[in-house]
Amino acid sequence: QVQLVESGGGLVQAGGSLRLSCVASGSAFSSNAMGWYRQAPGKQRELVAVMASGGSTNYAISVKGRFTISRDNAKNTMYLQMNSPIPEDTAVYYCNLNRGPLGGNYWGKGTLVTVSS
What we know:
Layout: E1 4-7, E2 10-13, E3 17-24, E4 33-39, E5 46-51, E6 57-59, E7 67-72, E8 77-83, E9 91-98, H1 100-103, E10 105-107, E11 111-116
Parallel strand pairs: 2-11
Antiparallel strand pairs: 1-3, 3-8, 4-5, 4-9, 5-6, 7-8, 9-10, 9-11
């Protein structure tokens, strides 16, 4: 029922900026919690930022103050604005939509972000 498609990844210089987008299918986008996760080579997938349906946000300590999560319910789209990225931010970034234990937990296929120095 739900499909997530990320875009916007690529190569970015340290200190630059990049914006990731995630377009979600579904008819109840505004009622879902959404988030961005990332996985670097040899590491576990980790939370980057989440946004509850009510708009509250939470960030990993490592990105707080540099990354911003937002969503446009009318467009069924979520964004991750990445400012001042560092090489340690290099990872595959995944979009996530959580519809709860009955509705399921959905992932996009990921988009690679490479930060060069």
